[in-house]
Amino acid sequence: MTLSLLIVQLLNGLQFGVLLFLVAAGLTLVFGVMDFINLAHGVQYMLGAYLAVTFVGLTGSFLLGLVLALAAALLLGLALEFLVFRHLYERDHLDQVLATFGLILLLNQAVKMIWGAAPLSVPVPEFLSGNVRLMDGILYPVYRFALIAAGLGVGALLWFVVEKTRTGMLLRAGASNAPMVSALGVDIRKLFMIVFAFGTMLAGFAGAMAAPILSVEPGMGDTVLILAFVVIVVGGIGSIRGAFVGALIVGLVDTLGRSSMNDLLRLFMAPASARATGAALSSMLIYLVMAAVLFVRPEGLLPAKGRS
């Protein structure tokens, strides 16, 4: 692998990690604070992408379409919380898994009925088109830099909210001992609704920002959901810092593994064997990382306080 290709793949891994963080942050808050397993979180990522397709097409403006998509994703998430999720908070995890899995099937079919099964796309906004010249022979798309910057900005905002505000204090306390927070007079149902709305917005934002660089199609949230669970297991359940670190690790390991594993194996294997083994190993790398982290730190790298 050349230096220029390594730099590009590092940036791709960073961008993928930031995208995973936007999805995993909401999932780890819902899981950590509410002890609720929401398998439909990936569907909310998909809906964010489809809503961006619709509103960008209607308005002709990426920024306006993004704002409208976020607002619609928030309202849809609140409606789902009111109609479905709040009735599952007191149920065991198996009931939550079955109900949210059914919601995945329902919403995937609804998306096919409304938008069709064919992949859709959102054009890269004109003011974010083009490339940045990093050095001789290395160009990188402006939009991907914008996605990285947006993800880092959201991460900084989340850190401020969780670490420096009263709402964040309640979230951290809720992640450690929700019954005690409720006993102190905090409206735990309202807190859950805020957490769920936050998580929905983050998943929708991730989907809308990914729409110009990924194919928007039914089921696109399923793969992201699995990776998001790997992120929060690696980083630690209920921890925003853990989700950020875990997302960067998973994003970089997955991207660099897929791009360099074949070249690495060719150093001591025949090309055909290296290609076959590399394809298998590269798809397993993040799960090997997860297993290694769980072996050393079963609670994750940076678990929420009270969970270690």
UniProtKB/TrEMBL annotation:
What are its GO cellular component terms? plasma membrane
Q: Which domain of life is it from?
A: Bacteria
- A single Gene Ontology molecular function, please? transmembrane transporter activity
Q: Which UniProt keywords apply?
A: Amino-acid transport, Cell membrane, Membrane, Transmembrane, Transmembrane helix, Transport
Q: Which CDD domains match?
A: TM_PBP1_LivH_like (cd06582)
Q: Which InterPro entries match?
A: ABC_transp_permease, BCAA_transport_permease
Chief localisation class? membrane
> Where does it localize?
Cell membrane
Answer yes or no on keyword Cell membrane.
Answer: yes
The transmembrane segments are: 6-29, 36-56, 62-85, 97-118, 138-162, 191-214, 226-253, 274-296
Instruction: Write out the similarity annotation.
Output: Belongs to the binding-protein-dependent transport system permease family. LivHM subfamily.
Protein known as? Branched-chain amino acid ABC transporter permease
